[in-house]
């Protein structure tokens, strides 16, 4: 009888010990799950914070490429989408920044956290942030057919535009046509004046600003592919906005619809512009500078059409992460 009682007590003790072990194991698993949950929540918070606060977009806008129309959209939707837009105004319209200003601008842009997310825009050459900071912004830009841009700028200096019609431009009163300018070999229509889009994409190296420099063209193409999120063309501004909205909806949500429904697509037009004659076009196209600038334009156009095709035509495309090793404890 005594032995039976001992066996019962022993069995009961074993049962209690077994359940205590199970409870301990379940408690450990619960703690592990709780820790993993908090870890995931903190990760989500960090992602949300970075998404909201840290986006920096640099738009180093080339003159007379439709930049006013595009940046007008950004200014109009920035309050609704909760981001900032800041103009970088450089004295004397100088497109090349001094070395101290290069360093200073990079430091200010990357550390001005209260302004993030933000779009900075201004007429200045590509600036390599990696030389001065570990933070790399998202560069965007627009490019235009080089002769169209030159002709537009030529008449803009003489007649102004409908954006600020009251402003008297520096060539006001000069009624010489672009054709006559080319015929008379005047400096305002010198093909070397087209050497601007290549330097804007090339950057701050001395060779970038030498008209006809082959290294500058190669560097401009390399930067366009490797260091710009998107480069659109003036002639297809609507799809430039659409691709940006699809890619960075945090900033550009609703931008396409607004662009199409507002007057932003025709915000700034030269008051008077006479298309050049065939003889003028042929003469300009014989220049090395036009050929190189047009090379960059065609390169950018082909790349933009490729990006546009694989963005706007494949919006239903999905991706997922799978086969993750080693497996996490569950």
Give a quick set of tags describing it.
single chain, 330 residues, Rossmann fold, five-stranded parallel β-sheet, 5 strands, 7% strand, Sulfotransferase family, signal-anchor
Low-confidence stretches: 47-51
Rg (CA only): 30 Å
Distance between the termini: 48 Å
The dominant shape is: elongated
- The structural domain count equals 1
Fill in the CATH topology. Answer: Rossmann fold
**Which structural class is indicated by helix and strand composition?**
alpha/beta
Biggest sheet strand line-up: 2-3-1-4-5
Describe the largest sheet. Answer: 5 strands, parallel
User: Would you tell me the overall average pLDDT?
Assistant: 87
Q: Can you write the helix and strand succession as a string?
A: HEHEHEEHHHHEHHHHH
Q: What name goes with the CATH superfamily? A: P-loop containing nucleotide triphosphate hydrolases
Membrane topology: Single-pass type II membrane protein
Main location: Golgi
Subunit structure: Homotrimer.
Protein name: Sulfotransferase family
